[in-house]
Write a structure and sequence with these properties.
mainly alpha
Length: 259
């Protein structure tokens, strides 16, 4: 009998120890903390930023984060508010593409974000209230994500035809038509002769107008972004084209402000 009671006591002690170990395991994590979790998060953040910068570059067909950084710097110099809205909309577009799982390679190449860049530039310029007003911020966020939805749909519809900025045009014109319809000026602008320094800066300002900005420094940085690609002839070709357009405008007596 004594031996039986001793056996039961030993079994009870073992059971208690096992329950204690299980309780401690329940309070603590069974698996050790991932020592590389912070590194993985940093890599994902870096990849996201790189995809967004490449989206800036893709506006001018430059598949390069370095080119996008130069363009972003040019926009910041010309108009910090517009640059902020372009970055916000591009981030929204890129994040939307990642959330819905649209072609990771195309997203990394900035193809999901370049429409968002242009959407942010347009919202900052054409929606009243200033670049940091609620209407502009919300329009940039929603418009960026909507441009990704349109981009993805157009990719399915037109597999062999490039869509260029069709998604941007659709989203932007819809938003502007709803929030701030375009109206013609009541009084035509007076004719102003073209100044000598305008002749030199007009081609560069023409390049910056891709992003709805009128700034020759920004235009020069965009040309540098094109030249930063593997083929520097792209920058030379763009410079020649904008110079030709400015000259033709001057020869045809176009309004000096437009030239």
């Amino acid at each position: 009998v004594v031996d039986g009671w001793l056996m039961l006591a030993v079994l009870g002690m073992r059971r208690s120890c096992q329950l204690g170990r299980n309780a401690r395991r329940a309070l603590c994590t069974d698996k050790p903390a991932d020592p590389y979790g912070g590194v993985r998060a940093a890599v994902r953040s870096t990849m996201f930023v790189e995809a967004c910068l490449t989206g800036f570059g893709q506006v001018v067909f430059a598949n390069s984060a370095r080119s996008g950084a130069l363009i972003c710097a040019g926009l910041t110099i010309a108009d910090p508010g517009l640059a902020a809205m372009a970055a916000l909309s591009c981030g929204s577009a890129t994040a939307a593409a990642r959330v819905v799982g649209r072609d990771d390679e195309a997203t990394a190449d900035g193809l999901a974000g370049y429409n968002g860049v242009l959407v942010g530039c347009a919202m900052s310029t054409f929606i009243p209230g200033g670049p940091f007003s609620g209407a502009v911020v919300v329009s940039s966020l929603i418009g960026g994500a909507a441009s990704t939805a349109a981009w993805a749909q157009l990719r399915r519809m037109y597999t062999t035809v490039p869509q260029f900025t069709l998604a941007f045009n659709g989203v932007t014109l819809s938003a502007i038509g709803l929030l701030h319809p375009l109206v013609p000026p009541s009084v035509p602008a007076a004719a102003v002769p073209l100044a000598a320094n305008d002749v030199l800066t007009a081609p560069l300002a023409g390049v910056s107008q891709i992003f709805v900005v009128d700034d020759p420094v920004c235009g020069a940085l965009v040309l540098c972004a094109l030249s930063a690609q593997r083929d520097p002839q792209q920058g030379a070709a763009a410079a020649g084209a904008t110079l030709s357009g400015s000259c033709v405008g001057g020869l045809l007596a176009a309004p000096a402000g437009g030239v």
